[in-house]
Amino acid sequence: MLTDLRIDDTRLLQRLDDLACHGAREDGGVSRLALTDADKAGRDQVVAWMRRLGLDVTIDAIGNIHGTRRGRSDGPPVMTGSHIDTVATGGLYDGNLGGLAGLEVIEVLNAARLETTRPVAVGFFTNEEGARFAPDMMGSGVHQGSMDLEACLAAVDVNGATVEAELARIGFAGDTPCGNFRAAAFFELHIEQGPVLEREGITIGAVTGVQGISWTELVLSGQSNHAGTTPMGLRRDPMVPAAQIAVFVRDMSDRLGGSQVGTVGALTASPNLVNVVPASVTMTVDLRNTDEDLLQEAERRLAGHLDRLAADEGVDIETRVLARFEPVTFDPDVIGLVAEVARDLGHDVRRLPSGAGHDAQMLARVCPTGMVFVPSVGGISHNPAEHTDPVDITAGADVLLRTLVQLATIDSEKSES
Length: 417
Ligand SMILES: [Zn+2]
Hints:
Blueprint: H1 9-20, H2 37-52, E1 56-59, E2 65-69, E3 78-82, H3 96-111, E4 120-124, H4 138-144, H5 149-153, H6 163-169, E5 185-191, H7 196-200, E6 204-210, E7 212-221, E8 225-226, H8 239-256, E9 261-263, E10 267-270, E11 276-277, E12 280-289, H9 292-313, E13 316-325, E14 328-329, H10 332-344, E15 349-354, H11 359-363, E16 369-374, H12 390-407
Parallel strand pairs: 3-4, 3-5, 5-16, 6-15
Antiparallel strand pairs: 1-2, 2-4, 6-14, 6-16, 7-12, 7-13, 8-11, 9-12, 10-12
Bound molecules: zinc ion (ZN).
The site of zinc ion (ZN) has 6 residues, from loops.
């Protein structure tokens, strides 16, 4: 019976451990920045697993790895997948879980000799994190068609290495054209990377969409001078408005309420000395909301505040957009299917939006898309301490299995189980 299908948790956990050997950190975490030697080793491992599973493996021009299991029809595949690149201080589960659970689904289908109507594909997308090359979600963005291949190949890291050269160096500059197929549906398993599911004691998150993201870099320029001899009333000190901006971002996000969050995560003064009024301060503002109108309202309020501060403090404030993604709403049918499948399997379910960006948000523009979240212990991610209980990993992978099987519409007559 299809309802008896279950993933093998020991096999999935072993794959997670095996992949974590590539780029392993001494503190137990993983550092596998996109297109490094560690990424190459991880990719080679993934391709070897795919071939052993009998998948048809392709590498496209941005280095995305796709493995496809045949269906009864030659139509577009139902697809799952994620990414195996990490931040420099990453953990074992972000991205890796989604891709490897996809391979586990293939294992189960193969073992049960189940023939699906549609092919089932597993994708490992290049540079989801954006930790080495900007922008993030590069592989899924190029695959889906909203990012330009040539521009992404020309992206450089801090040492001037290009994506194009690094793909060639590690042997993953593939000859398959990007976007050569369009999935019939896309469904991704991911850790929540936040505290909501754990706090509420819920195992399965049916993800409703992904927050919109607005990243801005601000450069505040004033007049650098002696900290002892310059009277307070004669200063043009960019640190003071910088501090006010950080407070404004917090208070404005509080006042807007709803899903609005705001963060000043980076700030550097120049020349950054104890006895010198700074010449300039460079800082970032990260604004997120699930509602595009409200996100634009937050951007407007910030811009208005910057204008007032520049006039009041006598400083110049230059702004530069670092990233801007509109909120994404996932397919209602897929969200409903996740909730139904999870309840059938006996799990508590909660609908929630994603606060982090994911490959699924790129795919959502071209096909029915959804995600399932499992709890992150302590809500911690992008950290070697990132952890998800094996029981929750198993639950999420079983939801992935059942949902994919439904989306690929199993032909039960061909089933030998
Ligand atoms: Zn991720």
